[in-house]
């Protein structure tokens, strides 16, 4: 295992004024050339977007996730599944350095993105979160108008172009434009839960990220809203790489191309629960012919 160690960010100026992973409030550092996404026409769908090598996560010195090694592919939906407490969300947050914002968090190993280690000393985590956006479990619109929710990120990162067009395009990509085009000045809190979640997706897409991370994005939604979010994921994967944490195995089977199964390991002598990656493969194989018995027992409902 590489002996490089990364500790949590302590500089509060590198956090956001408002809670979203893709619209960070600082752009003082230029993006490393290695972090610039390649044009879609030059990027085959078989390209590895994240190469995770022996990734450990510790909180206050205690191991929480251990030895995760897996490639995540470009323009695919990768689902992270497993029982509660197995480290799915912890690992997801490693992919855009959101764990940096948690006191006492420490990441070891390597996460290679477009040829560069995301945790190298010269990489600005603020710029990482611009390219790798996140949508959280519960919709978290800002206390602003629908329009201002979308415009906030592009303004912060200094995007050029007509703001009305940027807002409209983001809402269209999130399949929300027709619902809200006549009430853009209304407060976002007046939207339904499903609309708020799609607004958060549109807000993340507005800054033109390369990757979209989604942490249980449908857990607080009704079945109809869930279906719309799933349809949206399938539509936008032609342009974005998506990694989703979900407890819903049917959802993982419906939308993902690859699935990674995590479990909690209590047999390695640790005094605390440690999440470990058991198996990562094509989704159909994970659900029909898994190689590990633990995977089979989980997807067939024997535990979890």
Automatic annotation (TrEMBL):
Polar residues: bias regions: 20-29
Pfam families attached to this UniProt entry: ABC_tran
Signal peptide range in chain numbering: none
Keywords assigned by UniProt, alphabetized: ATP-binding, Nucleotide-binding, Translocase, Transport
Transmembrane intervals: none
Domain ABC transporter positions: 50-289
Gene3D superfamilies on file: P-loop containing nucleotide triphosphate hydrolases
This protein's record includes keyword Nucleotide-binding: yes
Single Gene Ontology MF annotation: ATP binding
Span list, region Disordered: 1-47
UniProt key word Nucleotide-binding: yes
Entry-linked SUPFAM superfamilies: P-loop containing nucleoside triphosphate hydrolases
UniProt cross-references to PROSITE patterns, sorted A to Z: ABC_TRANSPORTER_1, ABC_TRANSPORTER_2
Composition bias type Basic and acidic residues, residue spans: 1-17
Annotated protein name in UniProt: Phosphate ABC transporter ATP-binding protein PstB
Organism field: Svornostia abyssi
Lineage: Bacteria, Bacillati, Actinomycetota, Thermoleophilia, Solirubrobacterales
